Amino acid sequence: MPQFLNTQDADFEASFTALLGAKREDSPDVDAVVAQIIADVRAHGDAEVIRLTEKFDRLELTPETLRFSEAEIEEYCARVSDEDRAALELAADRIRAYHARQMPADDSWTDESGATLGWRWSAVSAAGLYVPGGLASYPSSVLMNAIPAKVAGVGRLAIVVPTPDGIANPLVLLAAKIAGVDEIYRIGGAQAVAALAYGTETIEPVDKITGPGNAFVAAAKRRVFGKVGIDMIAGPSEILVIADKYNTPDWIALDLLSQAEHDESAQSILITDDAEFGQQVAAAVDKRLETLQRRDIAGASWRDFGAVIVVKDLDEAAALSDRIAPEHLELCVQDPDALSEKITHAGAIFLGQFTPEAIGDYVGGPNHVLPTARSARFSSGLSVMDFLKRTTLSKMTVDSLRAIGPAAATLAESESLEAHGLSVLARLDALNEK
Amino acid sequence: MPQFLNTQDADFEASFTALLGAKREDSPDVDAVVAQIIADVRAHGDAEVIRLTEKFDRLELTPETLRFSEAEIEEYCARVSDEDRAALELAADRIRAYHARQMPADDSWTDESGATLGWRWSAVSAAGLYVPGGLASYPSSVLMNAIPAKVAGVGRLAIVVPTPDGIANPLVLLAAKIAGVDEIYRIGGAQAVAALAYGTETIEPVDKITGPGNAFVAAAKRRVFGKVGIDMIAGPSEILVIADKYNTPDWIALDLLSQAEHDESAQSILITDDAEFGQQVAAAVDKRLETLQRRDIAGASWRDFGAVIVVKDLDEAAALSDRIAPEHLELCVQDPDALSEKITHAGAIFLGQFTPEAIGDYVGGPNHVLPTARSARFSSGLSVMDFLKRTTLSKMTVDSLRAIGPAAATLAESESLEAHGLSVLARLDALNEK
To answer: Which residues does the record give as NAD(+) binding sites (chains A, B) (predicted)?
Structure first.
């Protein structure tokens, strides 16, 4: 049974705070192991990556077979059904179109002092994308990570994907090909992250690493941060559905379950202004759990972390939503646009009853890599911005240096940074002598 | 003596690689100490912050005096000279104008399937800014951190600044006031970072923490990352000047010294296509070092990490610059705009001989918080973007769900996520029955 809360209850605030603070993930402390793996890969390169791949993935490789050949990729791609291929291509087209609109503009202007100011954006030269192996090897995540990188203009995009016992997912390889990935390596774990960050004889180092992974991968990403850029470290998935009584309970139940089935640590919350509707949804969840393939996982998530919260009105729902700062937020209400205006903190909002969150996981267009664990308060989903960086530009004229240089010299003096001040004053003195 | 390299020398590549890889900073391992401080502040709140402030800053506080009162702030601000105040205001106006242009636009559109897609930006609700105490207490850094936050629309901006022995810098308080900071606390160290991240009885928690600090502050920021957002962890400052012979050697020398005087770990590099000019600049540096106030620091930095690199032409200079990915890049050449076009990786570019880097530290307009240690390959200087986050929006119509829903269901099935698929199919089935 999930928790049932009602904002009218005396103990609501305590229960809601406990729900917000519930620790859903126990990350094993693998930092020492990971530090050793990274040091070993830096010291021994390919040989160490190959040794660890044999150990963990039961797969014997050579420097020549670390990377999938073009022929192998073609062979795997040929195994994909026409239906799956068409679905991947539709998804890729829509993700590409959405992310293309995110490209920021360069700017340049001359201010009243005569100084030219501005900035320009440029892409990261090389990026690496971690793709988990086994069950969590999702072709959709390949599209969601690789397409923004390519839209941003990343020149070289390398994927690492472990293939335990040599088994690869044809859809992952096809997704990589559709997204324009340049290199695919059949390695995983902390050793793959180390290889991307520091390079080996065979693998050129990259500048940025993104993509999800297990505790070892997350720890390795934290460790190489600084040497390379990384994306966020994602936690278990979450959904918040705000629904009024004008909804089909079974649809809302399925939306809640579509997060719950990801992971026993996932969290699905329904907020409704109709207590009876809340009960109907909970009953529909139970019914679906009788037959769902992943009912063990989804059932554990719903039982341990699920919640139905009854509010007195939708304004109260919006306020609670902002305290949750959900990764995914569905607004299944009569006027979703109006309710959306009242929301400040959410990774992605899905408006109206015909926009189940699963649309956003695959084909909507927006990215499905989104901030978890309340981090939507301060961070955003993956986008082209993650693969771009900005260089600021400034150019003084003689007049603009005369106009603003003295203030710089004054501030430099106040900070006891004499050379800073002199670098301005020496120029101003020379100009005044002319 | 700094290093002299020439790209024509046989051992250039080895020497240049060594220069790039030189470890300039020895960060003490303070992680265990910092972890304990954070745990103690979480457990004991104000009392622990007060205890540690007495221990480290020799300052007795109460919950009532943790924060500067409005009257105190006014009193400190009144001590600032008119010249300093005018310089701070000019700097603030220019920084505000530059950052206001960075504000990204929301977007919303309807695609060919009838779906409405888009995103909107919103500001972080509350941000905290760390300001170092003592010698490194720079009012310019207050402006550079606080103004982008306020331009972005951060509702509540709190500063923490240690005041060892109770001594505060009036310019820091005035800069905070000019920038629109809402709260100023006289605390520092890891305890101040913990108080901002987790809150105490007196200090409300924030969502994002920015600003420079010592090893304890940096370790604390790393530790609270996830609970709150943080900015980059900055390393020692760097400047690269590309200069041809049509420059005054003394000006270039001062530009190199203006980074060197920050820190013995700072790095100043000159690249020139004229060996004789390189010697003239080195001689000018030596001459200035005879009298510079901070000659011990600047001299050590120049001796240990400085370099003069002679190249055969400016194209070669641009290529080396991209390998360095400098924090600050001055282009003191006849056609700086043309050379700038050849640069991809740099935090900030200063064009022409009348744009000394110190202009950018104070009054140019662009931010002076910039990526160090080659991280300009993948990251950008501080901007309004650091205080904004994006929520993606999608809204399907019945027609758009019919158009793209089946592909989502296909992909969900290929990933063995049944509930994802059912959440789409249940809706499509109901629509088809109508």
So the answer is: 130, 191, 214
Domain residue spans of chain B: 3-23+235-364, 31-111+122-230, 396-433
The runs of H, that is alpha helices, within A292-393 are 295-305, 314-324, 336-340, 357-362
For residue A355, give the nearest of B262, B394, B412 by CB distance: B394
User: Any known ligand binding at B247?
Assistant: no
Catalytic residue numbers of A read 327-328
* DSSP assignment letter at B228: B
Query: Other CB atoms closer than 10 Å to residue A202's CB: what's the count?
Result: 18
**Residues 6+ positions from B199 with CB-CB distance below 8 Å:** B45, B205
Per CATH, is B31-111+122-230 categorized as 3.40.50.1980? yes
Domain A31-104+124-230 grouped into CATH 3.40.50.1980 = yes
Mean pLDDT of A131-144: 88
CATH architecture of A396-433: Up-down Bundle (1.20)
Q: Do A343 and A349 form a contact (C-beta atoms < 8 A)? A: yes
Same fold, A3-23+235-364 and A396-433: no
For residue B185, what are its two tokens? 């606390």
Q: Find out whether B380 is annotated in a ligand binding site.
A: no
Compute CA A305 distance to the chain's CA centroid, rounded to the nearest angstrom.
Answer: 22
Q: Which of residues 16-55 of B touch A (CB under 8 A)?
A: none
A110–chain B Cβ distance below 8 A for any pair: no
**Rounded to 5 degrees, what angle do the CA atoms A203, A208, A211 make?**
95
ipTM of this complex: 0.96
Helix boundaries (H) for A184-340:
189-198, 215-224, 249-260, 275-289, 295-305, 314-324, 336-340
Residues B404-422 have pLDDT tens digits of 999 999 999 999 999 999 9
